Amino acid sequence: MKTNEEKERQKQLKAEVMRNEKEKFLNNLPISAGQFKELFTFLDEQLEQEGCDDTLFITKSYLGSKGIEQENVIAWLEENGGFCDCEVLANVEEKFENI
Fold first, then answer.
1. Over the stretch 30-58, which tens digit does the pLDDT of each residue have?
2. 93 and 50, same structural domain?
């Protein structure tokens, strides 16, 4: 059986690993987390009105309107399961839940 000290140390190590993973994730984003959150809000609003056409049309429109270079962002989204606008919300947005 683990002592309270061992349990606390294990808890601290787990928290440190989580912080390191979060930091690594944030450092490897092609745009800021805030810009991603704005994109998700925009997609949510636009998809409710227009629906998804199985492309990244709305995402590309958002990026273009903000003057953001699309190539790296689109590649990153696809690497993370965002192959169309609704998949960006379904698969990518959840990666930002604890940020």
1. 999 999 999 999 999 999 999 999 999 99
2. yes
CA 40/CA 93 separation, integer angstroms = 7
Same domain, 18 and 41: no
Based on the fold, state whether residues 72 and 39 are members of the same structural domain. yes
Low-confidence ranges of the chain (pLDDT < 70): none
62 and 21 in one domain?
A: no
Q: What is the DSSP string of the chain?
A: ---HHHHHHHHHHHHHHHHHHHHHHHHT-SS-HHHHHHHHHHHHHHHHHH---SSSHHHHHHHHHTT--HHHHHHHHHHTT-SSHHHIIIIIGGGGTT-
Number of structural domains (the chain) is: 2
CA separation for the pair 95, 99 (Å, rounded): 8
What range does the domain containing 94 cover?
31-99
